[in-house]
Amino acid sequence: MVIIKNIFKSFKSEAKFEKFLNNIQTSCILLLTAFFLFISCSSEKPDGNRFKEGVFEIPAGDGYSKTIITRIDSLQIEEYEKIISISNDSVNSEKRVKHIDTLYIKWKNNFFYSLKMKSPKKQLDKDAIYVQITKVKDSSYDFSAKIGFSKFATDGTIYKVK
Fold first, then answer.
1. CA separation (Å) from 87 to 91, 92, 95, 99, 147?
2. Which among 136, 161, 128 has a CA at the least distance from the CA of 49?
């Protein structure tokens, strides 16, 4: 309170005090405007729209080779090799079986989509897969996926190739 009284005493007239307040107000408005312009220009807004069509790749995982994904309109075609271990007596070997799955893809927004198998082979394949894009990078995105209402969930990264 003492500081405010001293400020009032330092001004000889009310007009000088109003001019002082107007200068402070103008300075605050300019600083806020500059701050918001800086924030809006410097931060790149993520664009999930660029991942709706094209050719993508998921690196090899446990029991699978890399997966090539092609998205055209409302279809997603996945090509991969399933790696099967074969054990005969003392000999262990691997067999690679090529798979091609066709799924319907339905985008809810740029960061959430669902996949549904066109021709399900197992009961679990009949459930939709719900995918949430969690982080967008230059040519890839991180995702979290869940199959239907099951407890199966996975995270990964998809890279755009074309």
1. 6, 5, 11, 22, 31
2. 136
Confidence at residue 122, expressed as pLDDT on a 0 to 100 scale: 87
Query: Count of residues for the chain?
Result: 162
**Average pLDDT over the chain, rounded to an integer:** 81
CB 110: neighbour CB atoms within 10 A?
15
Q: Taken in order 14, 19, 23, 25, is the CA torsion positive or negative?
A: positive
Measured in whole angstroms, the distance separating CA 106 from the mean position of its chain's CA atoms is 16
User: pLDDT by residue (tens digit) across 39-88?
Assistant: 544 444 556 678 999 999 999 877 778 999 999 999 999 999 988 888 88
pTM of the model: 0.65
Spatial CB neighbours of 74, under 8 Å, sequence gap ≥ 6: 104, 105, 106
- Rounded distance, CA 45 to CA 78, Å? 29
